[in-house]
Specification:
Blueprint (H helix, E strand, L loop, with lengths): L1 H19 L4 H4 L3 H11 L6 H9 L7 E2 L10 E2 L3 E4 L2 E2 L5 E3 L1 E8 L18 E8 L8 E8 L8 E2 L11 H7 L10 E5 L19 E10 L4 E10 L4 E11 L4
Parallel strand pairs: 9-11
Antiparallel strand pairs: 1-2, 3-6, 4-5, 6-7, 7-8, 8-10, 10-11, 11-12, 12-13
Length: 253
């Protein structure tokens, strides 16, 4: 009986396609969020500001590039989105390197819990892009891209007698979580400072290998402790492991 139903469904769909000649527009159309995520995936690490603008805005990308009047060093930046800089200069005022963060694709479904309702943070947008230059250069390159999905709700729970710890593998995470697997990630980040270098307080910048992280949030069974953790691929273990973990516990006393 089940096979008969399957055949009937397939025949009905096929007949509908023959009669209409095309799928309904509603089925073809992508949501704004899906279109934005497609753009995010197309952005290549270490691409220039111009190349990123071209991917995001197509033929009209030149109109989306401008310089900020308050900047000492004039460079082409994305005109849209909220932008923050952490440019560094030496004691003589000479440029050390440029670094900009762009908060893009505001998510209207996420309330802003900041004291300033107009403040834009990673909690109120879907995409964050970070550009940086090499030392003594004005050539900005895409070194970080983050995608946030606020719609993700992790139904997994950490067993009350267990904890999520740094260094855990997915198998070990599965052992301390209810159900099977670790749930869907709410954030993915691509990080690559291998070309422009990253300052760590030392005399010379370091050039770490590129990596990707996935972020998750999950409650314990009592639902009074929230775990936020990130997983990163380990080249020694050949799998993703917990690279960072933080917890918040509600005081019920």
């Amino acid at each position: 009986m089940r096979n008969i139903v399957k055949v009937w469904i397939v025949l009905s769909v096929s007949l509908g396609l023959v009669l209409t000649g095309f799928l309904p527009k509603e089925a073809e159309a992508k949501t704004k969020k899906e279109t934005q995520h497609d753009t995010f995936k197309k952005l290549k690490m270490n691409a220039s500001m111009t190349s990123v603008a071209e991917v995001m805005y197509g033929k009209n990308y030149k109109k989306q590039l401008c310089d900020r009047p308050e900047d000492e060093v004039k460079v082409n930046l994305l005109c849209s989105g909220e932008v923050y800089d952490s440019n560094k200069y030496d004691k003589n005022g000479k440029l050390n390197y440029l670094k900009y963060e762009f908060y893009l694709y505001p998510n209207p479904k996420v309330p802003n819990e900041s004291d300033n309702p107009n403040e834009v943070t990673f909690q109120t947008v879907r995409m964050l892009l970070v550009f940086k230059s090499k030392e003594h250069s004005k050539q900005l390159k895409l070194v970080e891209k983050h995608w946030f999905d606020s719609s993700v709700v992790n139904s997994k729970r950490v067993y009350n007698n267990q904890k999520i710890k740094k260094g855990m593998t997915k198998k070990q995470l599965d052992d301390v979580l209810t159900g099977t697997g670790i749930g869907k990630h709410e954030r993915v980040a691509y990080i690559d400072y291998s070309k422009v270098g990253k300052q760590t307080g030392k005399k010379h910048p370091v050039f770490p290998k590129a990596y990707k992280t996935y972020s998750y949030s999950v409650l314990n069974q009592k639902e009074n402790t929230l775990y936020y953790f990130e997983t990163k691929y380990s080249r020694t273990k050949k799998e993703y492991i917990v690279s960072y973990v933080d917890t918040w516990t509600e005081n019920n006393e």
